[in-house]
Amino acid sequence: MDILDEFDVNIIKELEKDGRIAFSTIATNLKISNTMVHQRINRLFEQGIITGIKPILNEKQIGYDWASFTGITLNKDSDSERIIAALKEIPEITECYFVTGSFTLYLKITAKNHEHMRKILYEKIDNIPGIAKTDSMVELGCAFKRNISL
Q: The HTH asnC-type domain covers which part of the protein (predicted)?
């Protein structure tokens, strides 16, 4: 049995177009009842399929012109929980992933300019005990960003 049926997929697609859309408008657009929309969206939240509806910021419009993808190598992988807790305290780190290969963690860092990025890397991240090294690639622009296709 599929987790999402046709109604769920269409409701999600409506929310992706505009997260502020009224449930009644979704119901009208999909020719289903308002109650069904409410029940489906509540179930999608309860199942953890939809984890939130929040604004997507355009970082450049608010003065954050630089971004990097930064791999982190740890002295000991067993320190990862403590190091992740320290990384969470740095607001410019917007994403953190466990990865395989040369790194233990992979970060997305957003900064106002190259000097701000230098301070984040050298004064904040490099000073976290247990980080052996970092390796960064500067982001030159986003070609596209999207959810998984339903």
A: 4-65
- Going by C-alpha positions, the residue among 7, 67, 66 that lies closest to residue 37 is 7
Half-sphere exposure at residue 131, Cβ-oriented, CA atoms within 13 angstroms = 22
For residue range 118-134, list pLDDT tens digits in order.
Answer: 999 999 999 999 999 99
Domain 6-47 indexed as CATH 1.20.1340.10 = no
Q: Rounded to two decimals, what is the model's pTM?
A: 0.82
Residue 13: what are its φ and ψ, rounded to 5°? Answer: -60, -40
How far apart, in whole angstroms, are the C-alpha atoms of residue 120 and residue 91? Answer: 10
Rounded to 5°, the CA angle 30-36-40 comes to: 95
Burial of 113 (0-12, 13-18, 19+ CB in 10 A): exposed
Count H helices and E strands in the chain, helices first. Answer: 5, 4
Task: Tell me, yes or no, if the two domains 6-47 and 59-139 fold the same way.
Answer: no
